[in-house]
Amino acid sequence: MKSIHRLDHLREEIAKFRAGHQRIALVPTMGALHEGHLTLVRAARERADRVAVSIFVNPTQFGPNEDLAAYPRTLEADSELLRQEGVDLLWAPNVPEMYPEGFATSISVEGVSADFCGASRPGHFAGVATVVCKLFQQVQPDIALFGEKDWQQLAVIRRMARDLDLLLPYADAIIGVPTVREPDGLALSSRNRYLDTEHRARAAVLPKAMRSAIESIETGGSIPDALARLEATLREGGFSKVDYAALADAATLQRVDTLSDRPARLLVAAHIAGTRLIDNMPVNAPS
Ligand SMILES: Nc1ncnc2c1ncn2[C@@H]1O[C@H](COP(=O)(O)OP(=O)(O)OP(=O)(O)O)[C@@H](O)[C@H]1O
Ligand SMILES: CC(C)(CO)[C@@H](O)C(=O)[O-]
Ligand code: BAL
């Protein structure tokens, strides 16, 4: 595996892949890799000749009071994991390489970014869209893989790719990979490592309460009642703040208060012991 930290070196490697007519997959990450990331890598390997993984803790997607400084940085261990997975190229730029002096561009994806994490983390999706667009320009992949754990992020990236004609045909090129979970149901996330043993155990109430809300909604129960119970269960289970617990159209991310034949998603973001966790699951209309 080649570990690359400079854009001119990246260009040389990508040119070699292109000269061999090799299909390139990109898996963008912020590092602190876990089995969720490795699942994306394996899905990439099945679909491409060359797999590139980027590791970049992108400062522009963190708010001023968020965890940019504390975010785990474990490049050596990450490189070893990627080497074992047979990754071809690790792109790990530093901040000045990504954001040279005078950097002044931002991509704003309207609509799909507005609510949920867009509302509770102002500026977050502009930071994500801008850095992902740059990563696409730099690596020039044929396909890119993202986790469904970050459902709204996936929708934002799909919208951006379609609007800016990135990675054509965008509908097949942006691949969403189902969320990988711990045995107790908690979605794997780099931020889970902030939790001590007690709060880590308590955090499993999140997927459990979501499943129970979904069961109630899918069997015809009231949606507002199910969402209110979900929030109350999270608070009783040790979550201090719920940014949102809502039902939305899975593609447009518009809130819905009734189910239709369009796919719907239950989306939650909530804080436990100072750590913000997100999760989402599909919801089917009652049959
Ligand atoms: N449990 C998971 N299952 C599937 N994909 C995942 C999972 N966790 C993260 N990913 C995906 O991995 C990619 C990189 O995510 P990132 O590096 O931010 O990791 P993370 O674990 O989501 O960290 P964070 O705690 O910052 O949310 C994203 O596309 C993300 O959706
Ligand atoms: C897509 C991404 C790598 C952009 O920084 C990040 O938001 C993430 O890890 O999900
Ligand atoms: N996985 C999304 C990156 C973030 O929370 O900033």
Question: Number of helical runs?
Answer: 11
Radius of gyration: 19 Å
Q: What percent of residues are in strands?
A: 15-25%
- What profile does the largest beta sheet have? 6 strands, parallel
What is the domain tally? 2
CATH class of the largest domain: Alpha Beta
CATH homologous superfamily (4th level) name of the largest domain: HUPs
Count of individual beta strands: 9
Distance between the termini: 50 Å
* Unique ligands: adenosine-5'-triphosphate, pantoate, beta-alanine
Question: Order of strands in the sheet with the most strands?
Answer: 1-4-3-2-5-6
Percent helix range: 25-40%
Task: Indicate the topology.
Layout (H helix, E strand, L loop, with lengths): L1 E3 L2 H13 L4 E6 L5 H13 L2 E6 L19 H10 L4 E3 L3 H4 L18 H4 L3 H16 L3 E5 L3 H13 L6 H4 E4 L19 H6 L2 H14 L4 H14 L4 E9 L14 E9 L2 E9 L4
Parallel strand pairs: 1-4, 2-3, 2-5, 3-4, 5-6
Antiparallel strand pairs: 7-8, 8-9
Helix pairs in contact: 6-7, 10-11
The chain binds adenosine-5'-triphosphate, pantoate (PAF) and beta-alanine (BAL).
Beta-alanine binds next to loops.
What would you note in describing this structure?
The chain has two domains: 2-177, Rossmann fold, CATH 3.40.50.620; 190-276, Pantoate--beta-alanine Ligase, Chain: A,domain 2 (2-Layer Sandwich), CATH 3.30.1300. It is built from eleven helices and nine strands. The longest helix has 16 residues, at 124-139. The protein is globular, with a radius of gyration of 19 Å. 39% of the residues lie in helices and 19% in strands. Helix 6 packs across helix 7 (151-163) and helix 10 (205-218) runs antiparallel to helix 11 (223-236). Strands 1-4-3-2-5-6 form a six-stranded parallel sheet, sandwiched between helices. A three-stranded antiparallel sheet has the order 7-8-9, covered by helices on one side. The chain has helices spanning 7-19, 35-47, 75-84, 95-98, 117-120, 124-139, 151-163, 170-173, 197-202, 205-218, 223-236; strands at 2-4, 24-29, 50-55, 89-91, 143-147, 174-177, 241-249, 264-272, 275-283. It has 287 residues and is of the alpha/beta class. The termini are far apart. The structure holds adenosine-5'-triphosphate, pantoate and beta-alanine. Residues 29-30, 36-37, 39-40, 146-147, 149-150, 177, 179-180, 187-191 line the site of adenosine-5'-triphosphate (ATP).
